[in-house]
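Please, structure for the following, as tokens.
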Amino acid sequence: MDNRIKQRLIDWAGRYESPAFIIDDPVQFPRKHIGKRAEISGFITSWLAFGNRKAIIKAADWLDKDFCDDPYCWVMTKQYNFYYNDYRKFYRFLSYDDLYQLGNRLRRLYNDFERMEDMIIAQPEKAPVEAISDYFSGINGIPDYSKGSACKRLCMFLRWMVRKDSPVDIGLWRKMKADNLIIPLDTHVYRMALELGLTNRKQADMRTALEITKAMKEIFPNDPTKGDFALFGYGVEHK
């Protein structure tokens, strides 16, 4: 990679990974909570994090209020049962029943594991994003890793949970390492990666996400998704 591009990405990452980033980003919702409450809030928020950012935040804010300050209690006491068989859409193509299905699967997970991180670590033969995709398979809105999806929202959730000492990300999990994370590949990140020559692939799929992540490891070898702030932040500001 050209040294000028490297320095540009370092500068952009430093500029955009700041507390100001949180204001317009869905990470603001899990940051309101601690422990498993933050984990559940982060996972459900990332599940619906597609489309316009303002619309995402509006939907996530509604959900955060529905949790009544305790997403873990919302899951474990089956408060999501209220949405069973309600096929009206609450956000884009997601229905209330989809929310029920997600809540039910999360409850099963927390009956079997202390944290979602433990479910992932129990399957060392799988990439973390693959383990999550497989566990929640069949639920509307969960991307299919086996079909080559970039799994952008799952990668974003993992970034939130794993990266430590960040003014943005939460770093809740202690066993997983940031060097195994994959760039969350959305339209802004993909466009900037193409412009900078980090990839020339024509599809925004998992192979492309891995290629961009590999390029970022040249700059941030132990923390490649730090480069997400550079590409996403600059891409949004200069779209």
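The chain is about 55% helix and 0% strand. The mean pLDDT is 95.
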